[in-house]
Write a structure and sequence with these properties.
The protein is an alpha/beta fold. It folds into two domains: 125 residues, Rossmann fold (3-Layer(aba) Sandwich), CATH 3.40.50; 102 residues, Dihydrodipicolinate Reductase, domain 2, CATH 3.30.360. Helix content is 36%, strand content 25%. The chain is built from eight helices and eleven strands. It has a six-stranded parallel sheet, with helices on both faces. A five-stranded mixed sheet has the order 7-8-6-9-10, with helices on one face. Helix 4 links the parallel strand 4 and strand 5. The chain starts with a strand and ends with a helix.
């Protein structure tokens, strides 16, 4: 594949390393220092674009790729209030767009497990559910996009839960998410069910960024010949 990397930070570097090891070619690298070269002509040099930036840039970057007719994979978080608009834009332009809050294969299996387990635990209302996530100190958003995905899935399954908040709470109708920021932690997500008698936890721990990068490239290969909106559930056939 010929790849355009939009957002050449730590994740962009990890994607480049894995992509080149797999025999792919990076034809465009965009960082905060050379945003002026993010043009339709330059994007068109790629078979697929991979976008990992920030909430302020993501929407414009994704639309630019769609305008160029180049499939785009995005993992930027913090812009979900505009998500439906971008999906609509993709459909109107007959573009190709794949989004995930987390591209790790293991995390996406964890998403599926979370939904299945929640449907079981919903039958036992003596267990209180909560979420805890831990990431490196350079991570800008809290809670993580992954934690939000887990929370939104829980809200659909656990009766009596109306919303989530990113702080401790004793309100039984609110789902609690606790965010921790610690040096050199790639990502840990924990779902905990606790009663007066015992507790049950399901946990996913990432050791490095390689798993995320491999998942991104798997997604990129999946969408190259397709049109429409996709997620990692489509890639992994979950």
């Amino acid at each position: 594949m010929k790849i355009a990397i939009i957002g050449y930070g730590k994740m962009g570097n990890a994607i480049e390393e894995v992509a080149e090891a797999q025999g792919d070619e990076i034809v465009l690298k965009i960082s905060s220092h050379n945003k002026n070269i993010l043009t339709l002509d330059n994007i068109k040099k790629a078979d697929v674009a991979i976008e990992f930036t920030n909430p302020h840039s993501a929407v414009g970057n994704i639309k630019c790729c769609i305008d160029a007719g180049v499939p785009v994979v995005s993992g930027s978080t913090g812009w979900m209030n505009e998500f439906d608009e971008v999906k609509k834009y993709c459909a109107q332009k007959k573009g190709t767009f794949l989004y995930s809050s987390n591209f790790s294969v293991g995390v996406n299996l964890f998403f599926a497990l979370n939904k299945y387990f929640a449907s079981i635990m919903n039958l036992h209302n003596d267990y209180a559910v909560s979420i805890e996530e831990t990431h490196h100190t350079q991570k800008k958003d809290a809670p993580s996009g992954t934690a939000i995905t887990l929370a939104e899935d829980l809200l659909k399954k656990i009766k009596g839960k109306t919303k989530w908040i990113n702080e401790k709470t004793d309100n039984p109708s609110i789902l609690q998410i606790i965010s921790n920021r610690i040096e050199n932690v790639a990502g840990i997500h924990k779902i905990k069910y606790e009663s007066e008698n015992d507790s049950i936890e399901i946990i996913h721990s990432s050791y490095n960024r390689k798993g995320f990068a491999e998942g991104v490239l798997l997604a990129a290969r999946f969408i190259i010949s397709k049109k429409g909106f996709f997620s990692m559930h489509d890639v992994l056939d979950i």
